[in-house]
Amino acid sequence: MARIFTYIAHKSGVPDDSAAELMAAARKIDAASSPTAIVTGWGPDLDAVCSSLQSSYAETWKISNEALVYPNAELVRKALVKVLPPGSILLVAHEHFGIDLAPGLSVKMNAAFVSDVLGIEGIEGSTLRLIRQEFGGQVSAHVQCDISSGAVITLRPGAFKPLEQASANGVVADKSPELGPLTAGRRYLETIVAEAGDVDITKHAVLVSIGRGIQEKNNVAIAQELADALGAAVSCSRPVVDAKWLEKSRQVGSSGKTVKPQVYLACGISGSFQHLAGIKGNPFIVAINKNPKAPIFQVADVGIVDDLLEFLPELTNKIREMHSVSVK
Length: 328
Ligand SMILES: Cc1cc2nc3c(=O)[nH]c(=O)nc-3n(C[C@H](O)[C@H](O)[C@H](O)COP(=O)(O)OP(=O)(O)OC[C@H]3O[C@@H](n4cnc5c(N)ncnc54)[C@H](O)[C@@H]3O)c2cc1C
Description:
This protein is of the alpha/beta class. The protein has two domains: 4-178, Rossmann fold (3-Layer(aba) Sandwich), CATH 3.40.50; 201-327, Rossmann fold (3-Layer(aba) Sandwich), CATH 3.40.50. The protein is 27% helix and 26% strand. It has helices at residues 18-29, 44-53, 73-83, 96-109, 220-230, 238-242, 273-276, 308-327, and strands spanning 4-7, 10-11, 14-15, 36-41, 59-64, 89-93, 112-117, 119-124, 127-134, 139-146, 151-155, 171-174, 206-210, 233-236, 263-267, 284-289, 302-305. The strands form four sheets. It has a seven-stranded parallel sheet with strand order 7-11-6-1-4-5-12, sandwiched between helices. A hairpin with a 2-residue loop joins strand 2 (10-11) and strand 3. The radius of gyration is 21 Å and the shape is globular. The relative contact order is 0.12. The mean pLDDT is 93. Residues 211-213, 237-239, 251-256, 268-270, 272, 274-275, 278, 288-291, 294, 307-309 line the site of flavin-adenine dinucleotide (FAD).
């Protein structure tokens, strides 16, 4: 069985939540596997990430180089090609950076490449069976992948539930000396931090999130009433911002905010990977959508097939009734 690695993205010294999801996916490929985490970067933040991974990964490879201080997929690709053993399987989160990193890396490794994987069905010999989606999630594709020369696989955030992990008490191996000089044509310019807006959706435990299914600006009030009844905030998908029904600071997703609520109500949201990329921390997802085949149902804990314009006011009324009973 090929050795399995996971590439761990991080920010401000904290590993991305995908670290636990990638571990879960590795176990789906090989239940007995103990995947090795790979972390690239520079300075105290990199050390902090490696230390925190020790509690969940038996082995972490640290790749430290001043050139890696800012995320640059071109440099990370060059670094990984130098350290990964031939025939390795590398799992990467299907997010901005992973999408940039993975395809070119598979070419350089002469390995198979499968993107945006939602499920892993199993392995027979050198054939790995995976599930992806086609046509915006309307079709599930069962893919067979020859991993005899290795593979680079990107995994959709939220598709693999993190495992309850016992403390691994893992080791950190420093692979930096194997790198040599790293140069790239790309150059880091600056990080632009998004404005917080009037409501900071990143701070709320419950989000009522609306998508294009809300249909028009006047209907946003229906979601706001439910949010008020729940003590929640209203967030949204990108089309709602594009239509100017809500401001950009409310957008969840790869080009919006990353949120970490305990409960996420996805109302009239189809479940694109760009939207799901912004939902972290494995919240309890309730999806309300009139299309029973909407991809959001594949990641939802509870799915309600209904017209949200009828369902949300009913739910608001029920919650208000519950409040009035408990006050009496
Ligand atoms: C580079 C890039 C970055 C992106 N970044 C983001 C991002 O940060 N965040 C983001 O959200 N998107 C982002 N997108 C867009 C993304 O690809 C999707 O287009 C978007 O998420 C779809 O939004 P949606 O689910 O609201 O709309 P749709 O995909 O149109 O889905 C609407 C859903 O509403 C349902 N519906 C319709 N009417 C009703 C009703 N009355 N009751 C119940 N259900 C109903 C439909 O069945 C459908 O499933 C990005 C795209 C690109 C290319």
